[in-house]
Amino acid sequence: MKRMKTRILTVLLCAVMLCGSLTLGGCSGKAPVLKDCKVIHETEFGGVYIDKTIDEFNALGFAYGDSVDLEFSNGYKLEGIPYYNGYYTQTGEPLLVAYPGYPHIDAAVNNGDSLWVTAGLKDGDTATITRVKEGAFLDIQNARDIHYKDERSEFPSDEVFANFRNVAVGDIRPGVLYRSASPCDNQHNRASYVDRLIEKAGVDYILDLADNREKIEKYMSGEDFDSPYWKSLEESDKIALMALNTNFGSEEFQKKLADGLAEISGEDKPLLSAGLGTMLDSDGPYLVHCTEGKDRTGFVCMLLEALCGAGYQEIVDDYMITYDNYYQITKEKDPARYNVIVENVLDPMIRGMIGDAAADLNTADLAGAARAYLKACGLSEEQIDTLKAKLTGVK
Predict the structure, then answer these.
(1) CATH number for 51
(2) Domain boundary residue, one of 105, 126, 144
(3) Do 222 and 90 belong together in one domain?
(4) Which of 34, 37, 42, 38 is nearest to 108 (CA)?
(5) Phi, psi angles (nearest 5°) of residue 164
């Protein structure tokens, strides 16, 4: 009996010693903490890298869907923000993100201003991160953590694989406006499929929301480039290269959108880009695309649909076809994810266009809001009327 008690005490002592050697969040029951970690300016998207790899950070006990407090050494704080493995917050909302391929975890404002600048950070500053609540945002993490395959054989048709479709909602005429994945950027093996489909549809003008001249030159020099119809349009100056970010409310986004949709000219300033001035020389059909044909394409198509009289449910139905194409998410198959995507991705886009975060989207004047948004971008009433007439056939 005495020997048995000794063994039990030995086991308990070993357990205590092991627990003491673990990071916070293990046996101790305390919330995981990362203290005084170096920060690095992430310049491409304006974020703040925390000098820990994703694996190192997660090993401390943090998990996707947790809420965390983030405090920088200069006193700037972000409280109760989500920790995700993707940019799942709404536009303008902060998050801590472990994006696949990033060398470090990143603190950022999704589609917003540079956090490094907003927080007033400088080289040598540090950050402390503490978990507030385990799984506080797990519903959104699970709904948005979705992936698709890049093999044509996994999809029922070329159209579904290419996320290609005619946009004919509201008063937009059939066969005039199309949307898709990229016909030139082949990182997802879809470019050649899109190219064949836009040729078949007779697309005569493209709004490329994702690329600039440097990018398309790189695509065309690639060994896998196989988009001859797209190249013929490029050589005929029938592609507007807009290189939009995804901050739909930013001045930069609106200016580039205006440049892409309208000829910006005047006595003392030259034409800034091919855009609606060129677009309106064409009677279509038109193609709108970014990389996947999802977010930037979703916003611009929503804007054009609203301008042409589409109601809220029509816009939702068209937008969510993308999630059916890529992820097989529909209201019938996966209602929980479907609703989270509509409420957290599309609805904020529409409210951003309206300029009212509390607007009732079912009763809002979407056509009037679209017109006001385009005017704020810099388009004239005449240009907006011409654009609408081209899409609807009604002057």
Answers:
(1) 2.40.30.90
(2) 144
(3) no
(4) 42
(5) -105, 130
Among residues 117, 144, 171, which one ends one of the domains? 144
* Domain assignment present for 16: no
Which residues form the domain of 338? 152-392
- Lay out the sheet containing 239-241: strands in order across: 165-166, 177-180, 286-289, 205-208, 239-241
**Which letter, b or e, does each residue of 218-229 get, where b requires 16 or more Cβ atoms within 10 Å of its Cβ?**
ebeeeeebebeb
Tens of each residue's pLDDT in the chain, 395 residues: 445 444 544 444 444 333 333 344 444 468 999 999 999 998 877 799 999 999 999 999 999 999 999 999 999 999 999 999 999 998 789 999 999 888 999 999 987 789 999 999 999 999 999 999 999 999 999 989 999 999 999 999 999 999 999 999 999 999 999 999 999 999 999 999 999 999 999 999 999 999 999 999 999 999 999 999 999 999 998 998 988 877 777 777 777 777 666 532 222 323 333 444 456 667 889 999 999 999 899 999 999 999 999 999 999 999 999 999 999 999 999 999 999 999 989 999 999 999 998 999 999 999 999 999 999 888 889 888 988 999 998 87
